[in-house]
Automatic annotation (TrEMBL):
PANTHER family: SACCHAROPINE DEHYDROGENASE-LIKE OXIDOREDUCTASE
Residue intervals of the Saccharopine dehydrogenase NADP binding domain: 9-139
Keywords: Membrane, Transmembrane, Transmembrane helix
Protein known as: Saccharopine dehydrogenase-like oxidoreductase
Family: Belongs to the saccharopine dehydrogenase family.
Amino acid sequence: MSVERLDAIIFGATGFTGQVVVEDAVDIFRDFKWGIAGRNESKLKDVLVKVGKRTQTDLSHIPIIVADVNDQKSIEDMAKKCKIVLNCCGPYRFYGEVVVKACIDAGTHHVDVSGEPQYFNGMQLKYNDLAQEKGSYVISTCAFESIPAELGVQYAEKNFPGTVNSVELYWESKYNYQDKSSKAILHTGTWESAIYAMQHAKEMLSLEKKLNSEKMPNLSPKLWMRPYAHQTEGLKSYFAPFPLTDRAVVQRSQRLAYVYEKKRPIQFEMYIGMKSLLMALLLPVFMLFGAIMAQIGFTRKLLLKYPHIFSGGLMTHEGPVEANRKAMEFRFTLKAKGWTTGTPESAAPNKEVVVRVTGKDPCYGITSCALLFCAKTILKEQNKMPGKGGVLPPGFAFAKTSLLEEIGSYKSGLKFEVLNQ
């Protein structure tokens, strides 16, 4: 007799991010049958006990599945036991593909919190056709990277009275340290992923070139990334270019919307805010210095071994204390420019709409919330998603679903507002 499949399994549930996801799943997944998975059964049991106490919920009925990325059969068995896997086990460069392949082979959906371009670009190139054949949706970057940016662009377009030509995103953060003993904002898992991504930067560029091979329209006026520190009207911070994961993911979503739907792509650039002009000027220098260190074996080992030193205490093996984590805030201000009527390519845009996306605990709370709502959307609204499956960026995958409204109405989700219309 066949056993009924679970709706969802949270894989990597004993990790720093995984435990946050399990706690949020108690509420967000209350109408679903879900389980947790990892390589250590006793630690998985401890997670359920700990989360149960924190949420005052009996979680003794939650299934536990033992699965290890070094044991391919265990991963395949896990994938067969559910409709969707929420993969919290990184760095994905090393541990992601075996889970993706197992899910696709089983016709199971897959979402993850990766911010690693080599991984998610590689998966799109390698498995998109097979995922379509098997009816499996594989969506990466369902986290702080890149759900707020993707949904922010959608929200700006929905509130624009015409055609959007470009969107520029300005990212500002606020750190309200409640516990002065630590200033960490991230666990070192994120740091390690970033180091490995910088180590293989050439591979990333090569994958992007192969992935983005479709012929695109010649858009005008062209939006260029400003490579220098600057300020923008209405905001006090000094901004530096930040051409990392969000930028690539949003641009890929826009590209696919044009390829499959002939929708005019929105040009996108993003910047990160600093308190002073000096910090904004130095940020690209620090990033370049880190990228160079990541290329050299000895210095790369130092970066991985002493993250707290090289990050100025922002990244630690212990991760952020909960009080500080939940007090951290972020603000995305998106400036959309375009035309109120038509798309007069020879004329400058005649309209600007400014929207804002805000939230607390972005690195873990928003990441957890985004991952769970992305999975929930796939379970409930597959008929609104493109095709019958595929390895897709979230902006394209969820463009016609209710994800924006769902995550925007959740108590600890994202807040969307129009500042100027």
